[in-house]
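Before relying on records like the one below, remember that each one covers exactly one chain. Contacts with other chains, cofactors or solvent are not represented anywhere in the record.
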Amino acid sequence: MRVTVVGLASSIHGEEYYVELYRRLTSIYSGWDNVTVYEEPITKYAEIDRGYDVYFVIHLTGGTSSLAYQLFNKIKKPVVLFASGEHNALASALSARAKLIDSGIKTLLINYVDLDDFRAKNEAVYKALVAADKLSNLYILEVNRDGRVSSGAQEYMKMIGGRVEAISYRELLDRAIEASIGEVEELINDISKYYVVASDHSKVEKVARITYALLKLVEEKGYDAVSIDCFPLIIEYGVTPCLAVSYLTAKGTPVICEDDFYSLPLMFIARELTGLSGWIANPSGSTRDGYLRFAHCTIGYDLGKECRFVDHFETGRPYAIACTYGFDKVLFGRFTSDYKKLVMYRGRVVKSGFLSENYCRTQLIIETPGLTPDKFYGGAVGNHHVFIVDKPLARKALEVICWWKDWELEWRN
């Protein structure tokens, strides 16, 4: 993702004003990878290098909408306009946006109030664009029964991009069995730093071997993400891959359970935007207090506290992961079946942990202001929803990604 930053000004506003403003604003880009800054503001038409993926345009003053149109209508590349309300800069940016969109130019407008706000929003936009670009080029491992790329993976590549390779359970299990005792014990020692490990060492070793096999495949082949068709593997091998999903995801490689490619984009985006894992969870009813309940057995240890091994919910096999969720505010959502629309919600964690034997082992009770359980379940577009820690400007960054990828984004509360 190559970005260039261009400042636009009208000379009637005074060079002493806009030159100094441009200097202060562009100081934030120092050290940014693949970002080039034009040294001086542009006040009249000039040829601009067309070799960039996106153009960050800072409206420094009013009287710059026609200039923006002249410059970027010829380049025909995406444009992000930044403007504050001072010196009529925002007014010009609004006019420029309308003209550029009417000409078919992908255009986004970001309003800022001061230098700190400018810095934060630029970082959010840049991080979002980098994440969107990476998402289109992920190298993905799929683990399933026959070792062939599934129809779900093929549809994912068609709609999102990237490259999927598949291996069979047998190939994964062969790698797990071949690992030496020393290698597995070393991994178990590291796992023990993050989880309270079960006392049955033979079962722990068997679970750790699956984790080791996936970890080595990721290291050797350079996969960016993994998808596992879990339940047939549990039946065939006698243990779950829940630890592998939790551990690798927390270490930075998103692992998708149940071969649910619809969850992969948000799982990857969560890490890119927040530096923390996403978490795939099943909607699991509601409480008498009107809160939503979500549950699953695969939460990353970086999201939780007091994480421990427990028996898997549906099968009783070793081992699921139970944690107390470590954050108060969350975003969660899911794509529609055509990958064209992302439905998102906001929530507050009321309670979490292994609260009941009747659900998957990590459970979240969520307050969703303005959204009743009946309304949520009446409009839910599927099962798995991906949870993202609601850090500052995470919502804005998510909106930028959807703009870049041409996804419809719907916030339902």
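Residues 115-135 form the longest helix (21 residues).
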